[in-house]
């Protein structure tokens, strides 16, 4: 058995919850849970986050170990932790990327909704500029001068926007 379905099954069976509880908590069927552990389908990123969030508070050794096992494979290439067919379904290179790519836009969207409406246009423009500048950093990660310039420009842009 590949590592991902094995670790997922371990997580789903390590605590005080049975498959009925998980299905109810995640608003899915027990069959769907079985499909995940048999690699017939993959969980949505939200499901993975909900499962981990619920279990994070438990101090039981079995639960802690199961979560540690998940984190141990989360940054490994999917080809190493899942079957070839399952790895293709994720459309990312790691489990961590899968969860982040799907949740980051929603988190950003929520944060953006908290910005007063008169600042949303300038804030969106600023976000685009920051992404463009950050792209430079990714191309030249060892250039401290470039990093300092980008940070300085970003700070100045935020201050200018807030002073309008």
Describe this structure in words.
- This protein is mostly helical and about 160 residues long.
- Helix content is about 75%, strand content about 0%.
- It has helices at about 5-15, 20-25, 30-35, 45-55, 60-75, 80, 85-90, 95-115, 115-140, 145-164.
- Helix 4 crosses helix 8 (about 95-115) and helix 9 packs antiparallel against helix 10 (about 145-164).
- The longest helix is centred in the last third of the chain and has 23 residues, at about 115-140.
- The protein is elongated.
SSE topology sketch:
Layout: H1 3-13, H2 19-26, H3 30-37, H4 45-56, H5 61-74, H6 78-81, H7 84-90, H8 95-113, H9 117-139, H10 144-163
Strand content is under 5%
The rounded distance between the terminal residues' Cα atoms is 59 Å
Number of DSSP helices?
Answer: 10
| Beta strands, count | 0
Summarize the structure.
This protein has ten helices and no strands. It has 164 residues and is mostly helical.
Which key terms come to mind for this protein?
77% helix, mainly alpha, 164 residues, 10 helices
